[in-house]
Design goal:
The chain has 198 residues and is α+β, with helices and mostly antiparallel strands. It has two helices and eleven strands. An eight-stranded antiparallel β-barrel has the order 1-4-5-6-7-8-9-11. Strand 7 and strand 8 form a beta hairpin. InterPro entries: Lipid/polyisoprenoid-bd_YceI, TTHA0802/YceI-like_sf.
Length: 198
Amino acid sequence: MKRFNPKFIKNAVLATAVFFIASGINHKLNAQTAYGVAPGSQITVTGTSNLHDWTMAATSFACDANLNVAGGQLKDVRSLNFVLPVKNLKSKEDLMDTRAHKALNADTYDKITFKVSDVTVVAAQKLVKVTGNLTLSGVTKAISLQANYTVAEDQSVLFKGSKSIKMSEFKIKPPTFMMGALKVGDEVTINMALKLKK
C-alpha cells in the first residue's frame, strides 16, 4: 500500500487554508450591499417654451442598486435600476400635467426607466461616470451622464447630476397650449438628487 508523505499532506492542508482565507478576504473587499431610495430624493424636469420656462418634479419613484461602500468611500456600483411612474411627474398646473402626460403616452407607457450598464467611480473627484439605457415613451436610448456623490456617516449615498435630452430623440412631440400659441421647446433637462440607503 502506498503511504502518503506527511510533509505533502501538511503542505496541502496549509495551501487549502490559505486559499479559503484569501477567498474570504476577497469576498469582503468586493462585497455589494442592496440599496434603495431614501427620503430627500427628487427628480425634476425643466424646459422652455416661447412664453416661459417650466418645471415638473417627482419625489415618488423606485430605485434598487448594489453598491460597495467602505471606509466612508464609494468603491463600486455593481448595478442600478431606476423606475419613475410618468404620472408622478407634476407641475404647478393641472393643464400642464395633462398635456405633458399625454405627450409622454403615459396611458400606454406608464413608466420611465433607466438601467445602468457601466459605471466608473472617480473617488478623488467624488464623481461617477454612468452609461445606461433610458426608456421613455416606449423608446430606449443609450445615454451617458455624470453625477457627483457624497457618502454620509450612515453609509447612505447621495448622487446629484443632470442630463439634457431632446424629446424628439424619443419620438415625443413637445406639447402645445392655447391653440398652439404656447410651444414647448424640444430640449429638456433632467435634474437628479438621488439618495440611496441600505
